[in-house]
């Protein structure tokens, strides 16, 4: 088998500077795919720019319900928002996931996908989610059902094999909120759902290129260990600014990600190892 790698940049449209960094990491680096936070101010403008300037960049929807505001009117998304009209934080949701009305979540996700289609004229090439609260099984079911209904590939944001289940706690933000054994139990429940209703997805998901692991050396190690099949590497390149710093705990590191993802040593290692850079269009 061959080794194929989707390098997906999350959070396109989060701010204009984040979008600029992602386009830089695509144009001069190894990013092949990006997922758009369509509910963010200015995201439609940035998406239009990506379609015009980066025709080879795979574009998906980064479904959000833990950052920003919903596209739905507040009265139609009451369970999803706090008293200020913002989405609940991931921490708040995972403390009380039953608070989320699944019909409201489904409607909001569909509104975000429709918004993408309104700008581009077509459905996204895949869907994934902002943060990892959707690993909770009743929320994962909504996400999974929408992928099935629209026949869209989707990110499966956890290990796919029992032997790799120890990596489940490596999903950023999850380990500090939920005991590891509970995370494993949720993943196993989601495995059952995927077995009953298969979906198109990469063979594996790599979440470790984040925070303290953002370095050329770490990324080269990921490439050296890449197995056969289709893998997705989650990345968060961008340029930080005051808006992002005020809204996100992950700001300055995005600049570092741009630098690593455009480093010539990374591209050379990919060529040396015979890895094919690809998009979700290659997911059967």
Describe the structure in your own words.
- The protein has 284 residues and is α/β, with parallel strands linked by helices.
- The protein has ten helices and seven strands.
- The chain has helices at 16-27, 43-53, 90-95, 102-120, 137-150, 180-196, 216-224, 242-247, 252-261, 264-273, and strands spanning 3-12, 33-36, 58-63, 127-129, 204-206, 229-235, 276-278.
- Strands 1, 2, 3, 4, 5, 6 and 7 form a seven-stranded parallel sheet that branches.
- Helix 7 (216-224) links the parallel strand 5 (204-206) and strand 6.
- Helix 1 (16-27) runs parallel beside helix 9 (252-261), helix 2 crosses helix 4 (102-120) and helix 4 (102-120) runs parallel beside helix 5 (137-150).
- The mean pLDDT is 94.
User: In terms of per-residue confidence, which ranges show pLDDT below 50 for 5 or more consecutive residues?
Assistant: none
Secondary-structure class: alpha/beta
Q: What does the largest sheet look like?
A: 7 strands, parallel
- The helix content, as a percent range, equals 40-55%
- Gyration radius from CA atoms, angstroms: 18 Å
Number of helices: 10
Beta-strand content = 5-15%
Count of beta strands: 7
Quick check: average pLDDT?
94
- The string of secondary-structure elements, in order, is EHEHEHHEHHEHEHHHE
Shape: globular
Distance between the termini: 14 Å
């Amino acid at each position: 088998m061959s080794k194929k790698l989707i390098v997906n940049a999350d959070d396109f449209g989060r701010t204009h500077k984040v979008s600029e960094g992602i386009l830089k990491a695509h144009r001069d680096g190894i990013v092949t795919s990006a997922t758009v936070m369509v509910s963010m101010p200015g995201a439609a403008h940035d998406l239009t720019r990506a379609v015009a300037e980066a025709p080879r960049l795979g574009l998906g929807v980064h479904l959000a319900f833990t950052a920003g505001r919903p596209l739905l009117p507040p009265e139609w998304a009451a369970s999803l928002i706090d008293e200020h009209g913002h989405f609940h934080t991931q921490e708040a949701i995972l403390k009380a996931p039953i608070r989320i009305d699944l019909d409201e979540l489904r409607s909001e996700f569909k509104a975000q996908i429709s918004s993408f289609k309104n700008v581009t004229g077509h459905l996204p090439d895949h869907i994934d989610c902002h943060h990892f609260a959707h690993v909770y099984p009743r929320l994962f079911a909504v996400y999974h059902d929408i992928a099935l209904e629209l026949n869209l590939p989707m990110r499966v944001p956890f290990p796919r094999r029992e032997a790799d289940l120890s990596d489940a706690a490596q999903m950023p933000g999850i380990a500090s909120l939920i005991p590891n054994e509970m995370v494993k139990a949720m993943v196993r429940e989601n495995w059952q759902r995927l077995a009953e209703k298969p979906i198109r997805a990469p063979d594996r998901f790599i979440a470790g290129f984040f925070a303290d692991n953002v370095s050329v050396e770490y990324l080269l190690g990921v490439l050296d260990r890449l197995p056969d099949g289709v893998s997705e590497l989650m990345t968060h390149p961008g340029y930080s600014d005051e808006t992002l710093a005020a809204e996100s705990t992950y700001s300055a590191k995005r600049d570092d990600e741009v630098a690593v993802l455009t480093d010539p040593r990374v591209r050379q290692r990919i060529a040396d190892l015979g890895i094919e850079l690809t998009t979700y269009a290659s997911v059967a």
